[in-house]
Amino acid sequence: MDLSTATSLVVDLFSDTSLYGINKREKLLALLAEKPPIGGVIVRLLTLDPKFDYVNPNIIDANFPTTVEPSLEGARLDKMVGSRESILAQLKQDNRRAANAAELLLYGVKNPEEQRKYWIWALAQVWVGPDDRHGYAVVLGVSGGERVARLNDVAGVSAYDRILSFPL
Q1: Given 24, 54, 55, 148, which is the most exposed site by the fewest CB atoms within 10 A?
Q2: Burial code of 10-33, b = ≥16 C-beta within 10 A, e = fewer?
């Protein structure tokens, strides 16, 4: 596993507010041992038709590692407002989990018109930008009439947005 992939796993793990101290260390070791990332999933999804008109150049496998082939089984769009942490907590209460980047990209390929209605977030994975201060999640939407896959600061989700989620 390369340094970028390991860093991304660590950031995701440490942003999980449901785990503390030794539990985070144990979960990280278990993740690294049992499910190494599958290479090329993000790149492959970005080449499927219909293609996105614009993709942020930081949406790559190294920044959003995938450990399983994405599926849309049980996918649902949820209308939720607030911080990433509050939305993840609410999803957990509802026995749901947020989508990762690969699941969101697959959703965009299979449902291209949905992203013309509202921005759709994948909150399970966060990439920390070069400034080391902000976490960015993949968001699908429309800009200037074009379907885009971009990165947004995960400071908050508005009432016009949707969260892609799956059953736990």
Answers
A1: 54
A2: eebeebeeeeeeeeeeeebeebee
